[in-house]
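Task 17 of the worksheet. Students: predict the tertiary structure of the chain below and write it out as structure tokens. Keep your answer in the requested format; marks are given for formatting as well as content.
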Amino acid sequence: PATATTDKVCKDTTVCDVNSEYQIIAATRTSDRVCSNLTMCSETEFEIVSPSPTTDRVCQLIAACDTNSQYETIAPTPTSNRQCTPLTGCLPSQYILTQHTATTDRTCTNLSNCSITQYESIPPTLTSDRECSDILSCFSSEYESQAPTSTTNRICETISECTADEYE
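Model answer:
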């Protein structure tokens, strides 16, 4: 302030650099403006609130997809979060044809059905189809000792021939 023997000393107010600072205290007639450095989001964060001349940037952690149950459908950007989507669940009548990756869903396809003339020789798994094989036909010199089922083949055995001193 000026006195009877001195003049006022006026100073330029500080100007906050809009690219790296924001104002935390406004200038008054008797005090300077106070600036603070803008928060910089890290590689594991994205910006949820943009900075203004008087407010700081707000960052949030980028979501992580659970690789056992989700895959990434939208990658994160400096201003948006990652989007995760649940993996497709295969039905009991299906198996996984293509496994999922970090950014693609799994593909399910229907299990094959064995025909009436086939049996299931190899059962399906979560990642493989069942295998069917043709049911064995007995020759005229054989008989069916065990009937086929949906998962076992027919068993044929040779018909016994009676010798001269035997009868049927």
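Marker's comment: The mean pLDDT is 95. The CA atoms of residues 67 and 125 lie 21 Å apart.
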